[in-house]
């Protein structure tokens, strides 16, 4: 069984992003970029399937600027066998990414495709679902456990108020939730080995996809600044302020 994972290059989760002065978006110049955390979980899940003898090959795919190569190298260091870079400087929105991934999937014919449930930069949470619709494949979103059976997968999903267990027939799309696994620490020897693994580069035109954006960002603004707190000398003053100023009691 071939498994394909989709890995996005995003601003590292530790970076506090700033909105550009013209409010056209977030300033990503000179900030640390990393693999989207949910995609690390997806790559770890695929690698564990290979280590358990359930998968024969893991292919990681990233769409975007040439530097997405680095994201693919991280996926290869976690355990993917090869990478595919769909290179473009165009602004990519979830529908365009889903179309690009579909074109790669048509060529690669994987049995299982694992994506993150959401990219931490755009927070869209759409790509996996759009991809399943374009392929007309079953999907299991927000997975916290994946068991591979004979031509099927049993997936535990994190839903409001509990867990839901569903069985889907393969080929299928799965999106990862936080509790699916804890990705391994990428070691130096594995980073060195990853350098020798193959990465193919394609352009959207090679895949017959027009990635032009369909949505226009009108404005991006910083969240309202929180007012500074105040230290009160005693409980009596606190109660009095909650009554007269905050008017909550
Ligand atoms: P989103 O719908 O943007 O929240 O992204 C959900 C998931 O789609 C991510 O966790 C990735 O697995 C995948 N994805 C989104 N953008 C890209 C990209 N540029 N390249 C590869 N995979 C992507």
Automatic annotation (TrEMBL):
Heterodimer of an alpha and a beta subunit. Belongs to the ETF beta-subunit/FixA family. Gene3D superfamilies: HUPs. Its cofactor is AMP. GO terms for biological process: carboxylic acid catabolic process. It comes from the Bacteria. Residues 23-211 form the Electron transfer flavoprotein alpha/beta-subunit N-terminal domain. It holds the Pfam family ETF. The electron transfer flavoprotein serves as a specific electron acceptor for other dehydrogenases. It transfers the electrons to the main respiratory chain via ETF-ubiquinone oxidoreductase (ETF dehydrogenase). Keywords: Electron transport, Transport. The keyword Lyase does not apply. The keyword ATP-binding does not apply. GO terms for molecular function: electron transfer activity. It comes from Paraburkholderia franconis. This is Electron transfer flavoprotein subunit beta. InterPro entries: ET-Flavoprotein_bsu_CS (IPR000049), ETF_a/b_N (IPR014730), ETF_b (IPR012255), ETF_beta_N (IPR033948), Rossmann-like_a/b/a_fold (IPR014729).
């Amino acid at each position: 069984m071939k498994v394909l994972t989709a890995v996005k290059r995003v601003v590292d989760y530790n970076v506090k992003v700033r909105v550009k002065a013209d409010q056209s978006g977030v300033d990503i110049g000179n900030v640390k970029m990393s693999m989207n955390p949910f995609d690390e979980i997806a790559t770890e899940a695929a690698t564990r399937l290979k280590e358990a003898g359930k998968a024969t090959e893991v292919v990681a795919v990233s769409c975007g600027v040439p530097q997405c190569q680095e994201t693919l190298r991280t996926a290869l260091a976690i355990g993917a066998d090869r990478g595919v870079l769909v290179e473009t400087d165009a602004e990519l929105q979830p529908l365009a990414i889903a179309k690009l991934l579909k074109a790669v999937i048509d060529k690669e014919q994987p049995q299982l495709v694992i994506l993150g449930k959401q990219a931490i930069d755009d927070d869209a949470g759409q790509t996996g679902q759009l991809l399943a619709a374009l392929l007309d494949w079953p999907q299991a979103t927000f997975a916290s456990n994946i068991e591979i059976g004979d031509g099927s997968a049993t997936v535990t999903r994190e839903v409001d108020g509990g867990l839901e267990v569903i069985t889907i027939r393969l080929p299928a799309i799965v999106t990862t939730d936080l509790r699916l696994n804890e990705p391994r620490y990428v070691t130096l020897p594995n980073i060195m080995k990853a350098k020798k693994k193959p990465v193919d580069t394609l352009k959207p035109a090679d895949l017959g996809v027009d990635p032009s954006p369909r949505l226009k960002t009108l404005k991006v603004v910083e969240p309202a600044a929180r007012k500074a707190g105040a230290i009160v000398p005693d409980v009596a003053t606190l109660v009095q302020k909650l009554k007269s100023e905050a008017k909550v009691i």
